[in-house]
């Protein structure tokens, strides 16, 4: 019987799944850190306007998404250089 050939490189499905996994990790970590920072900046005696709250939520999502993209790209770069 012939042995199956094992290639040293990752197949495209593995690359895609790896990028998505690390993107998810980057998003969750960045989102959690921003929420913790936001929670530490709350002062109950100073009310926040509604537009400021909406702006903060949008910025959190956008920056977390950017962190997710960077995490996925760094993982992909490391795999390609390996």
Textual characterization of the structure:
The protein is mostly helical and 82 residues long. The chain has one domain. It has two helices and no strands. It has helices at 12-40, 50-81. It starts with 11 loop residues before the first helix and ends with a helix.
Describe the secondary-structure layout.
Layout: H1 12-40, H2 50-81
Helix pairs in contact: 1-2
Helix proportion: over 70%
Radius of gyration: 20 Å
Mean pLDDT: 83
CA-CA gap between termini: 32 Å
In the predicted model, the low-confidence regions spanning at least 5 consecutive residues are: none
How many individual domains?
1
**How many helices does DSSP assign?**
2
Quick one: how many beta strands? 0
Percentage beta strand: under 5%
Q: Please identify the structural class as seen in this structure.
A: mainly alpha
Order of helices and strands: HH
Shape: rod-shaped
Give a short account of the largest sheet.
none
What's the quick description here?
The protein is built from 2 helices and no strands. It is mostly helical and 82 residues long.
